[in-house]
Design goal:
The structure holds 2 protein chains of 2 kinds. By secondary structure, chain A is an alpha/beta fold. Chain A has 2 domains: 6-198, Rossmann fold; 213-336, Rossmann fold. Chain A contains 12 helices and 12 strands. Chain A has a 7-stranded mixed sheet, with helices on both faces. In chain A, strands 7-9-8-11-12 form a 5-stranded mixed sheet, sandwiched between helices. In chain A, strand 1, helix 2 and strand 2 (53-55) form a beta-alpha-beta unit. The radius of gyration of chain A is 19 Å and the shape is globular. By secondary structure, chain B is α/β, with parallel strands linked by helices. Chain B has a single domain (46-378), classed as Rossmann fold, CATH 3.40.50.970. Chain B has helices at 74-99, 113-120, 137-141, 146-154, 187-201, 219-231, 251-254, 279-294, 326-329, 335-346, 351-375, 386-390, 399-408; strands at 128-130, 207-212, 235-241, 244-245, 248-249, 271-275, 300-305, 376-377, 380-381. In chain B, strands 1-2-3-7-6 form a 5-stranded parallel sheet, with helices on both faces. A two-stranded antiparallel sheet of chain B has the order 4-5. The chains are: A alpha/beta, B alpha/beta. At the A-B interface, helix 3, helix 4 and helix 5 of A face helix 5 and helix 6 of B.
């Protein structure tokens, strides 16, 4: 099976989708001739022509707003917001327009659009290149939110997102573009070519939205996470020497609650982990849902490990980033009760 | 050397307020027929003057004069008159229905009927309008059933959008009427995007964007113009300048720009300024812009100069911020009266026939209203169910919504 980085897998998903469907078009800042600042769209303009992959003015509201119009027309725009941090000028078009178009027109107009954006930190990007705004999307009725953690998942989920009849927010953990990252910033990075999850099937396949993946089976506790933190979680579990079940959500909305609650009801202990800020983060939603469905199986309070409630700092990146040490401490705490 | 001075904040304000005599002497209005009609293929930089004048066709005597007089046949003009009359009578009935408590809210078109009614007649089937809340004439002129409009206003069981939207936020793909958001200006970049999609597919259909004078201040307007300017898709960018954004006069949004149409010049777009109360001028300008769009010559900006003779909505009382008589003093007159005068001058219409038509249209509107009310109103009769509240959030209902719907008992 071919090995790919997450960037190559995302690019491959574009190629597969654009070859199969002439209505799939790609636009965004620097995505055309240059192929994107992270190279996720490299070669698409050459292969499919300027009318199907083109550069846009620096106007996120313009990109998302015209995308809504294209989707309503019947195209399938796959648009790139250069960093999730830049999304806010386009947020109104997502929240008030893309998300509600099917609802407010009773299905007469729809918005089958994918909005890709690199998310998360770990790259010394500070406050404007490191944010994880997923909770701002999961809070909106009418948006689906996807966060892959491996190249294979990125391709299959992106192809599923493009095929989806509704708007999908596709958050790409930029720290995982070139290799998995376990949070040990002082150790050499591992490329996807040396990691089993770097194997990506050729051609078309999809991974259904709304289905989580049990990355590691375990009996003592459950660690619910997604994106970059999947790899941090695995490292922390190995280091803690506890038999933890690790769940990669893959899709935050719709949520595969069944897989989560089956695991937590089995293990009786749960840690929720994300890179985004703690307060009103997606972890709060997870903790609330889990305690509601697993209350009588819980042996300990559900703990959340998340980014601190500060803007994402520059020099203090590794103090901010919820690395394996913090995850391990949380696991040890839930095991004590 | 210029003398230094501490800065002072300039806050534009209308010169006339309640208690004053209406005065529109500052509105410069050229005589009908005075403005040139360039070939639609003329480069934008050669027709910049069109953004600073007002294209007018009907003169005081009701004659159609000048290069923009398009020679619409009298059958079409009579239909246009009926469209405008229907819209006005429909508005009056719905305003009353709101006062009677049959719905929560309503927005009328009084004085602005010509713009949407005439514009629609310049479009073809398949073209798509991205309207605001004051372009229902687009629906009326395209033959959309009145009873469906009323069902929407009443949010009853016949409401095509299942009770989810405020009154007047209609949607009809078949009639080229994009779902109204209710957020201002958001539809502008969407229209540009729809037209870009048409251009990508080599499809000759076009999009028409609509916005009011006030919401041209939104960044959506400016973003849309950037994209329109860059990709040159087949889109007509309409600005309805009705002088008032709720209580705020147009000078607040316009700022230092000479006219709203002139905003287009910075984007290299051709811009027209048109008498919005002149059915023939609106139709002629719209036709000119559609010719440009269908010849792949790109977008056109049109500012329709008009006056919002009624309140912003049923929740508004304009007498609090402008003289009550201002509407009657508006120098561009009433669109229905002006077309009626023209048709009488042509010899194809008369006062008697007008009175008769009014009665016929009123009977038609009343009959539709009875039909709609037999289904229900906001507070009585058959209404959409709580089940409808959960449908169409997504194509397929996800588990969490099914769970919530069950909680409500559906």
């Amino acid at each position: 099976m071919p090995r790919m980085t997450m960037i190559e897998a995302i690019r491959d998903a574009h190629v597969v989708a654009m070859e199969a469907d002439p209505d799939v078009i790609v636009m965004g800042e620097d995505v055309g001739y240059f192929g994107g600042v992270f190279r996720c769209t490299a070669g698409l303009q050459k292969q499919f022509g300027v009318a199907r992959c083109f550069d846009t003015p620096i106007s996120e509201l313009g990109i998302v707003g015209t995308g809504v119009g294209m989707a309503a027309y019947g195209l399938k725009p796959v648009i790139e917001i250069q960093f999730a941090d830049y999304m806010y000028p386009g947020y109104d078009q997502l929240v008030s327009e893309a998300a509600r178009l099917r609802y407010r027109s009773a299905g007469e107009f729809t918005c089958p659009m994918v909005v890709r954006m690199p998310t998360g930190g770990g790259i010394f990007g500070a406050q404007t290149h490191s944010q994880s705004p997923e909770a701002l999307f999961t809070h909106v009725a009418g948006l689906k939110t996807v966060v892959p953690s491996t190249p294979a998942d990125a391709k299959g989920l992106l192809l599923a997102a493009i095929a989806d009849p509704d708007p999908v927010i596709f958050l790409e953990p930029k720290r995982l573009y070139n290799g998995p990252y376990d949070g040990h910033h002082d150790r050499p990075s591992v490329p996807w070519s040396k990691h089993p999850d770097g194997e990506v099937e050729a051609g078309h396949y999809t991974i259904p939205l709304g289905k989580a993946r049990i990355v590691r089976e375990g009996t003592d506790a459950t660690l619910v996470t997604y994106g970059t933190m999947v790899h941090v979680a695995l490292a922390a579990v190995e280091e803690a020497g506890i038999d933890v079940e690790v769940i990669d959500l893959r899709t935050l909305l719709p949520l595969d609650l069944e897989t989560i609650t089956a695991s937590v009801c089995k293990t009786g202990r749960c840690v929720v982990l994300h890179e985004a800020t703690l307060t009103s983060g997606y972890g709060a939603e997870l903790a609330a849902l889990i305690q509601q469905d697993c209350f009588y199986s819980l042996e300990a309070p559900i703990l959340r490990v998340a980014g601190w409630d500060t803007p994402y700092p520059h020099a203090q990146e590794w103090d901010y980033f919820p690395g394996p040490a913090r995850v391990r401490r949380a696991l040890e705490t839930v095991m004590k009760d | 050397m210029t003398e230094e001075r501490a800065p002072s904040l300039h806050v534009p304000a209308p010169s006339i307020r309640p208690g004053d005599d209406p005065d529109f002497s500052h509105v410069s209005i050229p005589r009908a027929g005075e403005v040139d009609r360039p070939d639609p293929a003329t480069p934008p930089e050669e027709m910049r003057d069109l953004a600073f004048s007002i294209i007018r066709v009907l003169n005081r005597k009701g004659e159609a004069v000048g290069p923009w007089a398009s020679g619409l046949d009298s059958e079409t003009l009579l239909q246009g008159l009926r469209d405008m009359m229907k819209l006005r009578i429909y508005d009056a009935r719905m305003m009353t229905a709101q006062r009677q408590g049959k719905t929560s809210f309503y927005m009328q078109h009084l004085g602005e009927e010509a713009i949407s009614c005439a514009f629609q007649r310049a479009l073809r089937k398949g073209d798509m309008n991205f309207p605001t809340y004051r372009q229902a004439g687009l629906l009326i002129a395209s033959g959309y059933p009145l009873v469906k409009m009323m069902n929407q206003v009443y949010s009853n069981d016949g409401d095509p959008v299942r009770g989810r939207q405020l009154p007047v936020f209609y949607s009809s793909k078949e009639h080229g009427f994009f779902s109204i958001s209710g957020n201002l200006a958001t539809q502008y970049p969407q229209a540009v995007g729809w037209a870009m999609a048409a251009a990508i597919k080599g499809d000759k259909r076009l999009a028409a964007a609509w916005i009011g004078d006030g919401s041209t201040a939104e960044s959506d307007f400016h973003g849309a113009l950037v994209f329109a300017s860059t990709y040159k898709p087949p889109v007509i960018l309409n600005i309805v300048n009705n002088q008032w954004a709720i209580s705020t006069f147009q000078g607040i949004a316009r700022g230092g720009a000479g006219t709203f149409a002139a905003r287009g010049h910075g984007f290299g777009l051709p811009a027209l300024r048109v008498d919005g109360n002149d059915y023939l001028a609106v139709h002629a300008a719209a036709t000119w812009a559609t010719e440009r769009a269908r010849a792949d010559l790109g977008p056109t900006i049109i500012e329709f100069v008009t006056y919002r003779a009624g309140g912003h909505s049923t929740s508004d009382d304009p007498s609090a911020y402008r003289p009550k008589e201002e509407g009657t003093a508006w120098p561009l007159g009433d669109p229905i009266l002006r077309l009626k005068t023209h048709l009488i001058a042509l010899g194809v219409w008369s006062e008697e026939r007008h009175t008769q038509a009014e009665a016929e249209i009123k009977a038609e509107v009343v009959a539709a209203q009875k039909e709609a009310e037999a289904i229900g109103t906001l507070h009585s009769g058959r209404r959409p169910t709580p089940r409808d509240m959960f449908e169409d959030v997504f194509a397929e209902m996800p588990p969490h919504l099914i769970r919530q719907r069950h909680e409500v008992g559906y």
